[in-house]
Amino acid sequence: MKNLLLTLAxxxxxxxxxxxxxxxxxxxQSSADVGMAPIRxxxxxxxxxxGSLGYxxxxxxxxxxxxxxxxxxxxxxxxIGAQAxxxxxxxxxxxxxxxxxxxxxxxxxxxxxxxxxxATGRFFGQGDIGIGGSSAGDNVSLNLGLNAGYAHxxxxxxxxxxxxxxxxxxxxxxxDLGKQSGLGVAVGFQIYLPxxxx
Length: 198
Prior knowledge:
This protein is mainly beta.
């Protein structure tokens, strides 16, 4: 009888021990249910486009751009702020004249659409207008942009974004010379910070 009880106790112990050794697999977080919390009035957003690629129709040139930005939500779903425009452009020319570095600053307005939204993502539209310059000369340019995008929240405060839109630049504001327009695509991220009263 003792042998039977010992065998039964050891069997139960082994079964319990083996069931406790189940391997736990962790999966990286790919989305977060955030609703309207990150885009409420009084919150802040910082981040930007970490890579922007575009093609200009007029000059047949390729460009890459980085746009750090910061904004403040003046109402639910509406942010105003400023972004820096740092770019490099290359065209079909020869030597250093074909390479151009650009810089600028542009205030922007961003609106998050309530329709078509999910708990983990939001569609948005962004318009900006600013000034800029380049290594090619002393001209100041007027820069306009109209973009649409989607923000996918991977955590409660971080969203990955993709934007596409139309960009216009006019280097000599008083004449029709030096104007460029084109389509661009940008991929980036934003960090949403709660306001002081949250």
